[in-house]
Each structure stands twice: as structure tokens, then as C-alpha cells.
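Example (one chain per record):
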Amino acid sequence: MNYTEISVAIPYHGRADFFKETLKTLLNQTCKNFEIVISDDSNNERDLAALDALVKEYASYGLKIRVVRTKPNLGPILNTKQAVDACKNDIVRILHTDDSLAPSTIELELEIFNKNPDTFFAFHNLSVFREKFIPNENGKWSDKTWVDNWLKDKNYINSIIPSCLVINKKVLTEVGFFNTEFEFMYDWEYQIRLFEYAYLNNKRVVEIEAGYVGWRISKMSESYAKSLLCYRDSRNIAKLMKKSYAKIGKKLGINKKSIKRFKRIFDNRIEQEASCDGANLKLPLRLYPRKIFHYIRDTFKYLGKKISKKRSYHTAKSVLKSAAPLFFDDKFLLYSQFPMYAKDVKITPSSDNIEKTAIVICGPIVEENNFTYETALLYKKFYKNQNVDIILSTFADTDETLLNDFRALGIDVVLSDKIRANGIDNINHKITLAKFGIDKADNLKCKYVLKTAADERFYNPDTVLFLINLLKQYPKTAKSELKNRVIACSKDSFIHRIYGICSDFLFAELSDIKKYWDVDFDNSDTNELNNISKKERFMKYSGDSYVLRHFLKNIKHNLKDDIKDSFEVYANYFVVIDKEQINLYCIKNSNKNSQYDFYFPNLMKECLFLDWFNLYSNRDKIKYPLSDFGSY
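Predicted structure:
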């Protein structure tokens, strides 16, 4: 049989902004032999009108689109079933309104069903994305591995989301459809039935490698949040496992030990998903003690006092808080706690007499735990009704819903496009975001600018006042062309890296920080760095060093490119503060308080205020021992 066309079944329930992006990926398909059937259960006039406008627009571009109206709030599964039933073709692919397809997806799917007309269903391994889906059209698929990989392993711990599923309509009559009472458009019982039926009836199933279907994750994605609920009722899934093994276990050589292993893997998956952004997924009570014990064992290596697994979560938590000392491998351990959310920070600034300052948050928005949003909310809380402007400088392809959350707080949002050439350590993106954010501070007529990164935050509300007072306490040297010094932070500012001041956290007067970021893009061939040693790469070549070198040229400093001159630069043009002085936390850093081990020579030694002050006071007598990389 020759399949000439495929149907795309789409359940619609509002969110036209996301759906427009999905329609664009359909418009860009290399194969045009498909129809689009949209089943709409929207519940308000605005959503209905938005869909009608989109359908009219994309039909004018040549897409074959039909809309099936139904009663409001039919529910995701019945809404999808209605779209599938209305499809005229035998091969149907399901697509959600916030997901994306690579340009050759439908062409590949038609090719698979035509080369193997007896294919029962095909499924893609999904590619997760937050901002923009990057396809990887490798053309790889297989009908050989699914039995071993899925019936023996993946079937009980991995879900195939509907957007990844392409079915022959025979599936509907022989196996049925999703459970309409389930909270999400997916349930394990249906997937198990699909694979079991195919196996027992010798039906062909095709697995397609990741790269074709993009599944959007965002805190606004209802399907993402609900999908995590699939992991909640692990006891029922364990029952499904036993039923499944009763049918096929002996044929595949699976036994009770296999079931035990799956339960253990499944518990790990529940713990993992419970901590995901937007999950709102509560752990089963039996897993709370296990989670806290893992936390103690793996994060703190707590061996000083053994904690019985019979102890409750609360007991374990109290021991972690109060038991001293914590030690491991002949070392004492300390840990710090930082509230995740702004509402839990109760301290306020000691003074409201702050000169006009901008805090510029640069980088892609960190959605996990709403980190960047909560950071902006914390700063607004600190500097409410004060002379401090908060600016978010991020990329133009950011989800508009996320941006509106920041705008609702009164944050100035500045957008810039990504550029093709990343440069060393993605520095070109950092340059772009910093420039746009600082220009906004200039427009707002700010005297000072604190440039920070979207993946870090400070918890001390007196930070801005502290930085301003530091500039007054340590004036510039006479020969400097700057108005004042630049304040940097110890985090990732390394003593042994030549011109190694980290560019993530910088504070200065407006004109000085504009000079700092008046930098051309890095167009060098970064592949050449593969030919040098790790030590030399660390000491001389980094995105931070690239920016600082250009800044030094801007202020007419004669670069000598050696460690002695680097010390001179730190002493003459900077003040370096400890991250602990402002309670700075960065989510990408190690859980260790410092990335380097202080008690033996290490290239990863950060520059502390103590180091900077000694350089500032008497740099000629300062020598730091060098070594290769140590433990960090």
C-alpha cells in the first residue's frame, strides 16, 4: 500500500501565541502532503477569535486546515480523539499546540510507513526545549530495537508523549485510545497495551531517534506540568508491571528481580521529577526519608554520625541542621542555606539614601525554580521606592509569557537577538546582553550600574550601598583614565588567570562600565585552543580575559600579558569583594562554598578581598605559588 498523505491531529485549547510557532513548523515542512485537523474546545471568545485568525492566515499560505468545534472544556483526551476521528487519512500524527517539528519530520514519517506498510505505529524520542527548538534531522530510525529496549526496560520508566506518536488508524480499533479519565494526554497503561499488543501479534513498531519532535518545557506549559503527574501513582504502575510480566515476562526472560529493579528506577525518577520546574509533584511519603538520606550521604558525605533509615524525614532534617561537626575524609564541612523564594527573605536595607543605580540582570531566563524571576522579585523587594532601577537584558526569542511576568513587576525588559558566532566561552552573547542593558541604564540616567548574571543573585539588601561606599573609600589611581574603580567579585575571578576578573558581577560608574563593555565581538577560531594545554588555556584564554583585555586597551593601559601585569591591573583599576560579603549565590557553581581547595596550591584559587587588598597595599612583594589543577 502506498500512503500519499498524512493527517496531523491537533487538540486546541487556547494559547494562540505558542500555536503560531507550531504552525510555522508545519508551514516549513519539506513535504506538503498532509492535512491539519484542529479540534477546538476553547472556553472563551478571545481564544476562539485568535484561532480563527491563525487558521485564516496559515490557510492563505497554502496549509490545508480544518477546524472541528466542540463543547467547551471537553478535556485533552476527548479533544484529541475528536481530531483523530475527523482525520481522513489512515496515518495520523498527534501534535500539541506548543510543540515543534523539524522541517523533514512528515517526509520521514511518510517514508517509514511506505517502506514498511505493515507498521502499526511509530514513535519519536523527544527533544526537550525551553526557548527555541534546534532540530537534528539525522534520518535514523529502527524497527529492530524496540522489543529489547521498551518491553524489557524503557516501557516502564519512560513515557512517549502524544506529539511523538504516529499511528495507523488500525490502532484505534485493535487497541483503543488513551484513558479519558487520566489527567494528562498520556497514561502508562495505554503505552503498555500498545507495546504488548504489537509484540504478541507480531506488529511492526518503528522507533525514531531524537531530533525531529521538540517538546516545550516552561512554567506556563500545562502539558509539561501535568505530564509529571504520570509519575505520581507508582503503586498502580507497579501493578501494571506485574500484569504485563504475567503475559510476556517468560517470553522475554524477565523475572521478579526485574520488577524490583524497575521499582527502584521508578522511585529515582519520581524524586527527579518532583524537583522539576513547575512540577508541583509531591513525593510519596515513603520516599521523603530516602530523599533526605540521599541528600546527607551524597551532598555532605555525612559519616560522623550514622542515621538509621528508620528515622523520619523531620528527624533527619533536624540532625542535618544541628549536628556538629560534619566531617568527611579528614575535613570539616560547612554548608550555607539560601531561601529559594523572595517571600522567605525578611531583611531590608539599612538605608534608603542610595544614588541613582541600575541593577542589570543579563542572560537567558533561568526557569528552574523560577530562579531569575524570584531574583528580580527579591531586588524589587529590597529597593522598593528607592532610587534603583531593575533591568532584565535577555534574548528576543524568549517566551513572551515569561517576559510579561517580569514587566508586571515593573522590571525594564531589554531584548537583543542572538548572533551566529558565539566566541570563546559564548562571550559574544554576553557582550550583546551587557551592552543593551547598560544602554538602558544610560537612558534612565543612572549614575551607577551593577551588572549581574541571570543565574546568580545576592541576598544582602545593603549590597548597592556597600558598593557605592567602596568606590568612595578606594578612589582611582592618579594615572587612571577612569572616573573611578570597577568593583568585581571573587566568584570565578582567579588570581592565576592573566586578566582573570570575572565579568558576571561588575559595579562601576556608568561611563566606566560602558568602557568596560565597549568590546568588539570575538571572531577567532576557537578550535585552535584544542592544540594548547589545559593549563595554558585556563591561564590565558577565556571570555572574561578577552573582555578585560579590550577594556584595558580602551583606557590606554599598556598590556604586557603576564601575571605581574595582571596583578598591577587588579591593584590599579579594581576592588575585588568576597561573594560572602554580599551573600552571593550562583546556581551553576559547585555545592562547595568555594570551587578550589584553599589549603594547597591550585590554579583555581579565586581572588579574595584579602588578596586584592594585599596587592593594593604592596603588590611588589606578593607571590602566589602555582600548580596544576587540583580538586575542584
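Caption: The first strand starts at residue 6 and ends at 12.
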